[in-house]
Amino acid sequence: MKPAVQAALILLLAAACGKTEQNRDGDHRLVVLGPSLVEVIYASGLGDRVVGVDRFSRWPQAAAELPDVGGYSDPALETIASLTPTSIHISGESPMLSGYARELGIPCYSYDFNDLAGVYRSLDSLHARYGGEVLTFRDSIESTLDSISAFTRPLPSYSVLVVVYHELGSSSMTVAGGSTFYSDILHSMGCTVSAPEAASWPVVSAEGVLELDPDRVLCLYPGAGDSMATVEAEMEFWTELGYSDSSVHFLFQPWIMVPGARLPRIAEVICSCLY
Fold it and tell me: Taking 60 as the threshold, does the pLDDT of residue 262 lie above it?
């Protein structure tokens, strides 16, 4: 073989290796970062291809037993390399992980779980790459939201303030905005999210809450250690703002802020609070 042809062939093979999703045995080996993404991959029947997850992905149990590859800001690069992945998958963007994937000669895929449209796009991307039961899971989300819509259609609609973070004693809080999956879930009920229009997760003061004047308040405390103490302290805050016990709701499920495999359950729980 002529040297020039041989060099060209080596370049072609190198380029192919950089784009492949399989190793020489024909296997997929996925390193996945992001609890929502990890949950969705397992719910889609693709969990047997995952070889490492981020430190925050503890569900399902099979994922919790996999090697810990760190987080977005401090990934364990040596651990990732030792797992010989064929691709890296992340929720959101990470220039560090994208760059490291290029060094390893493998693809890095990013997914968006901010709103339902992003969730559906992520599912469609996974289905196009791997098949599995992705579309079945997608259908379960749409079916749940359709059922909720049919149930709430004849009932009153509310404007709902969804508080995703409020430090006890503080007069400001972070809330869900109009371009989030919470807004989409509320829309399926005929309700609206009560929030400024400026951002997906804006910070609102107590005075700002009074200006928004929501009909209902939904406070999210995933995994709070002492739920009774939290409710007592929070209700004192909301009572001072003029809200009654029947207008303020609390959710403590550890997965309530993770739009992954349990997204249909999140919608059902929110619906049960408001109706």
Answer: yes
Q: How many residues does the chain have?
A: 275
Question: Among residues 158, 163, 157, which one has the least CA distance to residue 208?
Answer: 163
Q: Which of 77, 111, 145 is the last residue of a domain?
A: 111
Task: Report the CATH number at residue 99.
Answer: 3.40.50.1980
Of 194, 185, 209, the closest CA to residue 275 belongs to 185
- Counts of helices then strands in the chain (DSSP H, E): 11, 10
| CB within 8 Å of 220: residues ≥ 6 apart | 162, 163, 164, 251, 256, 257
Q: How far is CA 193 from CA 36, 49, 247, 262, in A?
A: 22, 38, 15, 21
User: In this structure, what DSSP letter does residue 70 have?
Assistant: B
Q: Rounded CA gap, 172 and 160, in Å?
A: 17
Domain shared by 160 and 97, yes or no: no
Task: Identify residue 4 by its one-letter amino acid code.
Answer: A
What are the distances in angstroms from CA 52 to CA 31, 86, 197?
Answer: 5, 12, 38
pLDDT at 218 over 90: yes
- Comparing C-alpha atoms, which of 260, 264, 224, 250 is closest to residue 118? 260
Tally of CB atoms within 10 A around 215: 16
For the stretch 170-183, pLDDT in tens is 999 999 999 999 99
pLDDT at position 26: 54
* Domain assignment of residue 187, yes or no: yes
Q: Which domain holds residue 236?
A: 156-274
The model's pTM is 0.87
Q: Which of 20, 145, 34 is nearest to 86 (CA)?
A: 20
Nearest to 272 by CA among 140, 145, 148, 158: 148
